[in-house]
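Researcher: For the record, we're logging two predictions in this thread. I'll number them. Prediction 1 follows.
Model: Prediction 1, sequence and structure:
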Amino acid sequence: MNRTPLGRVGQVKQITSLSNPVIKEIRALGLKKNRDRSSSFMTEGLKLVIDALDQGWQIRTLVYAKDAKSNANVENVAARTVAAGGLVLEVPQKVLGAITRRDNPQMVCGVFEQRYTALKDMHPKPGETYIALDRVRDPGNLGTIIRTADAAGASGLVLVGDSTDPFSLETIRATMGSIFSVPVARSDIDGFLKWRDARDALLVGTHLDGAIDYRTIDYAAAPTILLMGNEQAGLPAGLVERCDRLARIPQSGRADSLNLAVATAVMLFEARRHLLEV
């Protein structure tokens, strides 16, 4: 690793006050309207910042705690930020804690440009699996699903309808960095159905009244899109009737349903089991 001492990195600004305009702007990213207005979001932790940079995401601002100044990895990330045209800020621990809303914050956070994949650019191919989420509302569920999609080797995720923000801090935390590896698109219902109809892919929806055991579906026959419903309402009738297969996950206990992230994981690993077997 090429080490560049932070004292020699240009554009490093030392900020000590929470009232600084740049700090206020970063803190404002806690609200979706501000993330949308600036098309940016924040991620915390050195590993996640490095993951984002390695995956080619555009960094706008790097913030590091003054105590991390001598850390070689932080110095390297600061140099990469400057090289990418970003701003580097050195702040006290209390300022970093206020930015991340944590009592014991990690020593680094970064502000990155949002990135969505255009739905038209997703072309399901044999051996690929996509996840479509209808009106997912819980950021923890969405983040966990993105992380699971990454682990299972899914090719992308589509947010259908009014869904929670994939770039909220809560979602980013739950993805554990997988947000930088999994293409995410968004669409209304009509756009999603037109996209799906133009592609030779198997659309498998999940429903409590599904007629087919999810383990009996031939997922190897074609590219697969797993369609998962809203946490409370499930899939609407308009989407249910367009599915090629309507699957159910058998249950024997007293619980009447599974958590959305858990149900998605069960479906996803079964759909890709023929590809994951060693």
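Researcher: Logged. Prediction 2.
Model: Prediction 2, sequence and structure:
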Amino acid sequence: MGALTGEIRTGLLDDGRTFAVLSAATFALKAIFVKLAYAAHPVDAVTLLALRMGIALPFFLWLARRERGAAEGPLTPGLWGGVLIVGFLGYYLSSLFDFIGLTYISTGLERLILFVYPTLVLLIGAAWLKQPVRGKAWGALAVCYLGLGAAVWHDLEQSGDARAVAIGGAWVFASSVTYALYYIGVGKLASRVGSTRLAAYCGAASCLMVLAHYAAAGSPVRLGELPASVWGYAAAMATISTVLPIVLLAAAIRRLGAGRAATFSTLGPVLTIAFSWVILGEPATWQQVVGLTLVVGGVSWLGKSK
């Protein structure tokens, strides 16, 4: 029996699908931890983000040190500039907009807005890089945004505050736009910098940007005044929903390849909404389920139509 258990355990740990699912699940908890922190104490988005990134910074520095001698060679000034721009767009600006948006809207709507970033990558590519959009892709775009409309309907019915939904939705959509730009930048830099080294350098740079923002903004909340619960949720965001997904996804990509590992990302919105029902007690409605189905289906269709 012990040998059989060991074989099963080894098989699970060697299966890239397990790592991919766990990566999606741990990242899906990020918005849940943010909402729990907001509920535990009146903390602003900049302070909470600074806590998250400050705790995550040692990991990114360790990873950057480990990858410093990567086979891709030293970075040129131009590549360093690209890394800083990508870090600014991704872990810093996109995260900041997302944290602000979560003060207004539900985790379910937030996750679905973020999940449509592939549609923005497509549209930015068409407008900026002059990449043509195929006919089937337009149908996928329509399905995605019809699903978002259903998700917005859910939040409007539950909160009754159209202004809050509009403000929060706009902030998170801005987060999705900056993440799409980050994604395009990563695609341009990864082959020249190395994907792991790029993640480490971008992560470390963005952590420093967030901490500088916190120091310059003069947040009304002092870190020492925050209760242990907020520190705990920030630590969970930094470890469970920032560091761990990166490590797990890297393990999944090594075993499955980037394309197959990416297919498991569709689990993210499903898991976030499920966690919001179970952990946060957010109500489940048919509008949200329809929105989830259409957005996930539209993004999957978009991936196949390229």
